[in-house]
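Expect chain and fold; thus:
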Amino acid sequence: MMMDDRNIRELAALSYSLAKWILLSILAGAVVGTATSFFLLVLGKSIGFINGLPSWRFALLPIGLLTSAAVVRLFAPDASGHGTEKVIEAIHQRQGRIAFRVVPVKLVATVITLASGGSAGKEGPCAQIGAGLMSVLASLFRFEEPDRKKLVICGISAGFAAVFGTPVAGALFGVEVLYVGQMFTDVLLPSLVSGITAYLVSMHWGVVHSSQAIFLIPDYSGHVLAWTIAAGVFFGLVSLIHIEILKLGEGLFRKWEVHPLAKPLAGGLLLLSVTAVAGSRYLGLGTDTIDAAMAGEPIPHAAFLLKSLLTSITLSCGGSGGIVTPTFFVGAASGSLFATLFGLDRALFSGIGLVAVLAAAANTPIAATIMGIELFGSKAAPLGAVSCVVAFLISGHRSVYPSQILARSKSTALVLEEPARMDATRSSPRFSRLLLAKVWRYLRPRIRIVMRDIDRILSERRKLNP
């Protein structure tokens, strides 16, 4: 059967859109992959240089935080905090417009923060650098708002894919992180192409992605499923603690009425104080501890709390960096704790915790599940998926990214008044229409029948014994 004119026009429009976005996505992946690789290589050299200094290098921490905060304050205030949050805010509130000066300032400030020992991540700056470059590219091409936002999302996906070596998870993260309960599928193909391209470009430039330990995946059974669900509940609660600690630190430093540059100095001294008691493993990226947990080595029980605390201090006082790498630390350390408490495989539950706490804290269960598959293999998919979704539900309407839009409630148990930012969401529990209501509707007629029978029996007895 011949196609009519409408189908031909539709096919032509879709073909044009496909070709356009494949080309733009490849360009985005190449540009962001190159910029991200430069950042990661400079960061690696800087951390290696500082770590090679004697023990007095820890005294550089307050100086580094002060310098980082001063650079951001003087040249690009929009580059403050953890980068992914600023990108989400720009997409929702400024049509994806990000000033170009944010890119070099974010790069320099993050290198200074992490090299001097600040507790933060490297993915947020990569997402912000990628989004900033794509915003500039969209301005050069004079894109309208929808195409601008789509290209900026490609920048997020490309940055995330390049920094962690997980191209599919990176693509999905860029799409999923903007809204909770809603995904725009028209951005999926560009995000995938840009993420894969950025990953390949980063490998070409010599970026080495950390390899995770391969642990033994048990055969699936009811027993294993029960422990996985229980772990998901635990990781959801851990993510709540993580979110609240970050929020508490931000609130305290914001309310502290002193000169802005006094805050990073005080924050650096606080970090040194905690380090003097707990050790230096909680400074910097913390990848050594993540690798140790993934290898099944014992981890201090309070490690995830201390990492949340130090990350909160670093980012709240004026340091620059991301939030996902510390979230990986929190997830892996809490997974090790869960396994230790119940006599389970530490390596297995550290891996599950790494992705499940990310799913709950960032509200990205699909991206986190795919990341688990890319890092640990397809056999881990069922366990990771179950734990990620359970943790995502337990964390409720909270997020490490306050600018996320809650488009749909996570459960019918919570009534959402209207879509809103995560930090302005209003929802209320709905018990009357849940299981108890269904049980009551089932029992009510039967109770009435029983009461009528009791009345009848009592009436008959009164007649027999007047």
Observations:
- The longest helix spans residues 5-51.
